[in-house]
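Lecture 7 notes: from sequence to structure.

We start with a single chain of 217 residues. Read the sequence below before looking at the structure.
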Amino acid sequence: MSRILLITNAAHDTATDYLDAWSGKILEVAERQKDVAVFKLSGRDTTKENVTKLIETEKPQLVIFNGHGDENSITGYEFEILIRSDDNEMLLGKKIIHAFACSAGKILGPKCIAIGSLSYIGYREKFKLTHLNKTTKDEKITDPIATLFLEPAFSAILALIEGKMTFEGYKISQQKYLENLRILLTSDSTDLNTTVAARLYHDFKYQVCLGSKEAIF
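Now the structure, written as tokens:
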């Protein structure tokens, strides 16, 4: 194995349970890559101590955070801070990062690049996930409203695992956002072509790709 991937899934509320369910798509693609080893932290195991230990011992080149956050931090289970600016962002030096963590792309993302992270894909404002509040993992993956938001977002991660450059993954994601926006804006449903479309456009607008455009996992 020459490529190491770390995925963290907070999985402690509805939004992060959706991300946890969709991360199965990451595992499926990673398993098809014979040179990729995957380390996963989920639920109660998603702690600062465990993240620190895995990064220091396994040295992943790609780190995926599926949780909550703010401008300065990314959190894990029950909002425990995993990475915070001016604290331990040095852990992410020389790595490609994808963060589902609201607003972390505003301050923490640029600080990661400043200390030597290769690339950071995430959101510099709140990620407005909309869904039908489904219960099981299968239902979450097939939720048609959640899919409008999560398929574009996760496509960036899948592109990275398949060996595409960071900016290629970002552009693929942006294109899928636009395709889904067209679907919503041409819908006969007022709720879809107003409220849901506005939220999806928000995510499209505030998705960021920082650092090297040519970094490859």
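Residues 3-211 form a domain with the Rossmann fold fold (CATH 3.40.50.1460). Keep this in mind for problem set 3.
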